[in-house]
Specification:
The protein contains 6 helices and 9 strands, in the order E-E-E-H-E-H-H-E-H-E-E-H-E-E-H.
């Protein structure tokens, strides 16, 4: 398989682009595009912690995440969770993955007694929405931290390392990097990998779709994901270097 439907080689990432400060009221925000997948990622600060932290005298702050797909993000309109009266199982699983991935690289103690909400809303879905949300969520978090530091609300950087994610899979026996929707739908095996800037694994989700796979195939996919994440991390660094000047936060109320 020399090329795919979009012309990429099996080991090639989709084009990545980033638009900063897409949400004026968020502490940090980006619109991240990965091919035809688009996700708005925002980070919002609350000057309080969850009740359970207060009840258990847990020091430091908290970070959590929410994920949703907007109705027009797919070809057929997706019903809003509010219309169903509950969050669907897929969204719940993804937002838990988002929270775990970002907490893994954040020093919650350095946040102080405040919470950071990372909200990821899918504008357009063409595969890889969860991995795009993790990569963009990290950029939004980093922007929020920059503004917290600039306003003097925190003195040290709580982000220990950047974090990024990518999908890989076996499609017609070929290992593919960064699956689009048709590839993800038809893959015999698919895997989502989350990794830090230091090359440490945060999470690996691998499953056979009516197909089993060998340890050798697993290792091949994991190696391909690691190479791909290096490329995503390089994009993150370039996007951060090219960010506009951050508007300072208003001083914390006395």
């Amino acid at each position: 398989m020399s090329s795919r439907a979009d012309g990429r080689s099996p080991h090639e990432l989709r084009p990545l682009s980033c638009q900063w400060d897409i949400a004026a009221n968020a502490t940090g925000s980006v619109l991240l595009r990965s091919g035809r997948t688009e996700v708005i990622c925002t980070a919002t600060v609350e000057e309080s912690v969850p009740r359970w932290m207060k009840d258990q005298n847990v020091p430091g702050g908290w970070l959590t995440a929410e994920y949703s797909m907007l109705p027009a993000s797919t070809h057929d309109r997706k019903t809003r969770d509010s219309a169903r009266g509950k969050v669907d199982g897929r969204s719940t699983e993804i937002q838990r993955l988002l929270g775990r991935s970002l907490r893994a690289v954040t020093d919650l103690g350095a946040l102080g007694a405040r919470s950071l909400w990372i909200d990821c809303d899918v504008l357009a879905a063409d595969g890889g929405t969860r991995t795009t949300a993790i990569t963009g969520g990290c950029l939004a978090l980093r922007r929020a931290i920059e503004r917290l530091q600039g306003s003097g609300r925190i003195s040290t950087d709580p982000l220990r390392s950047p974090v990024a994610a990518i999908s890989v899979g076996l499609w017609q026996g070929t290992a593919l990097l960064d699956l689009d929707y048709p590839e993800d739908r038809d893959a015999e095996v698919d895997m989502n990998v989350v990794m830090t800037g230091a090359g440490r694994l945060v999470e690996v989700q691998a499953s056979g779709e009516e197909h089993d796979f060998t340890r050798q195939e697993f290792d091949q996919l994991l190696q391909l994901a690691e190479e791909g994440i290096r490329g995503v991390l390089s994009f993150q660094n370039a996007a951060w270097a090219a960010r506009p000047l951050a508007i300072p936060l208003a001083p914390k109320p006395a």
